[in-house]
Amino acid sequence: MRKNLTTKVVVIIAVLLFFIGGIIGVPKGLSSSALKDALLQRINLGLDLRGGTHLILQVMVDEAVGITRDSDASHIQTDLQQAGITVGSVTPDTSRTDVINIAGIPADKSSDVRSTIDAKYGTAYDIASGANNTLTLTMKPSEVDALKKAAMDQSIQVITQRVNELGTSEPVIQEYNLGSNQILVELPGVDDLGRVKDVIQSTARLEIHAVDGGPYTSEQDALQQLGGTVPVDELLLPTKPGASSSGNVEWYELKRVAEVGGTDIRSARVSQNPNTNMPEVDFFLTTAAGDHFADFTGANKGKYLAITMDGKIQEAATIHDQIRDQGNISGGNMTTDSANDLAMLLNTGSLPASLHYLQESTVGPSLGADSIHQGVMASLVGMIAVMLFMLIYYRGAGINADLALFLNLVILLGFMGYTHSVLTLPGIAGVILTIGMGVDSNVLIFERIREEMRAGKSPSASVEQGFAHAWTTILDTHVTTIVSAIILFIFGTGPVRGFAVTLSFGLFANLFTAVFVSRTIFDANLNRKQRGGALSI
User: What predicted TM-score, i.e. pTM, was given to this entire model?
Assistant: First the structure.
């Protein structure tokens, strides 16, 4: 009995020391401030406690559908030309992002056109014949849904990569308001809302387009030269300030479909222009994109091309020689910070669609400090009140319960330290609820022991039967609560998930302290008493 008891005590002490290490790690001293700093380094504070930036973004997923549709339209025209078929036009529909119109099909080539398109695009589009030898390709609903989902997933991935590059600890980036194509972004400790918005919102979709016309002095001048409207297979875009040789904003007519897209960028880095000593960004293309770009530039020497990003022309230049897999962006008002941000955006990939801000706010640290103070005070007052109640109502056994309760709290905080969990106000609520569940478990056990003692059994037999009978009830209550917490974790957002994690691990810790630790203390107490000695409960 004594040997078994010693083993249990060693296990309890080892667990206690292990989780204390999780709470404070290796502090730089033993002062209260050093211990506090060590604790805050192990347990991160959430947005509601530390302050920071809160954003809700709307992903314009229809743009991603339209980009795919535009690319398909260009490829269809190329495929038909390679098949020796000439049609009047292959144009994206101006009123819908999922429709392509093909007009001017030769009457004797109608079946050939349909079979050529159906062979490659039949799985993604429904093909319908129209009047005057036309075809209408409508993207299938399943394909549209898949593109929208992919746009959401890619947006979350890109935003996560960009936020990580900012050095933010424990950010929350996840789908919000499921089914509404929205993203929740919470960045604890980040209060520069302007830079965060610039980095996150930039689509950074660097593209290289062939230039068909320009430069024009203004948009009105460009439209006048084009007869009032821009052709459906063209784009009319301005240069960014400072990008043109004149220093003024100029406008160019570009091919709608890019020769090089954002997904063709392999890497980017910041360098220094040897002539001006100004920062610039070098970008490198993938092998396949480099081969295509080499063919394009080799066949179009003397013509213009434009590098665009986020709806503006970064640079427009004449093609002098064949270019394969490397280019750079320079000039204008580019600073070291803006060059670093641009290189980071290109390296983390382009967003598949633009973002609109539905909600944005910053939480100041004073609110966080007040929340921390009130949350900690609530926890301490509740814990002290519970411990006093257990001491008064259960006398000597109350010390047993208080020790188990204290160890429960140490295990929970140690777990959060080891996993670098984010502590939020709901997380503090989870800690308080864990304390309540711990007390409930001890009350069940103690009342069963009292019932056994009133039945005339000895203290050791009462303890044995009390734990045996209460165990099933304790397990049932904990399992049902943990199942509820798991559901909250699966379907909840950041703070709710924090509450679920804190509560779940607190309940697992409570099973250990209420059953194993509390039983060990009872056995140690009985072992010191003479056989038949009274039990203070």
Answer: 0.61
